[in-house]
Predict the structure.
Amino acid sequence: MPELPEVEALREFLDARLTGRVVERVLPLAVNVLKTYDPPLTALEGGTAGATARYGKFLAVPIGGLYLVTHLARAGWLRWHDTPPAGPPRPGKGPLALRVVLEGGGAFDLTEAGTQKRLAVYVVRDPQEVPGIARLGPDPLAPAFDRRTFTALLSGERRQIKGVLRDQSVIAGIGNAYSDEILHRARVSPFKLAASFDAEQAGRLHKAVEDTLREAVERAHGVAAGNLKAEKKSGLRVHGRAGEPCPVCGDTVRSVSFADSSLEYCPTCQTGGKPLADRRLSRLLK
């Protein structure tokens, strides 16, 4: 799933190619991705694109007084064409969900692989009309997201810190992969209760949030959209690396499985050498 660093890189990529361009056509190929109907997609045609903005994991392109907003979800992606493909796209064929064609050449596609269709597209007058944007917590790269603000967010949270970091209404933009990376850098168990952090621990975790995300944004800077997924994977130290040695201590990276995802961690670095219980596996063994 694209998270804050990749979405920020896509924002930069689109901004350099869209700003000042006129939208010629908007072609919906998978009607299930469109979450709004008034204004219609056709209202974007003839409009001039402004600077692309990011809200957490959402991208918002201002076009002629409206906004084209998208959330790529787990398997969505953006594909750029310097020259629009010849011939009209065929609905229902392949992963293509939406195509935006620009006057004078150029186009971009929104695609989604897999069977779980969660890619979302909105046409709104204000990004805050999108429910997912309206309930976002603070952006962790914003200047106001300081140590005091972060510590206040943890106060009273009786949930495990892994879930708190992923909750978009608490902090915007962090998903499964970067929450694993942040917790590994901070040497914190993903099962630790958020409210149990003292000031020193909260400060260390806040620094890990900032450092992890800023380094990932820097790695993604200038990378073409088609290469961002590979760039993300290459920079991960524990997420998706179960069975491999921890790059810090050499212990084996472990995994805990859930219904539709998993987390990865290093026992030596994060849990005092003790493996975490994999509840799904435990149920299967009973």
Remarks:
- Residues 251 and 268 are 6 Å apart (CA to CA).
- Strands lie at 23-28, 53-55, 58-63, 66-71, 76-81, 96-102, 107-112, 120-124, 254-257, 262-265.
- The first helix runs from residue 4 to 18.
- Confidence is low (pLDDT under 50) at residues 281-286.
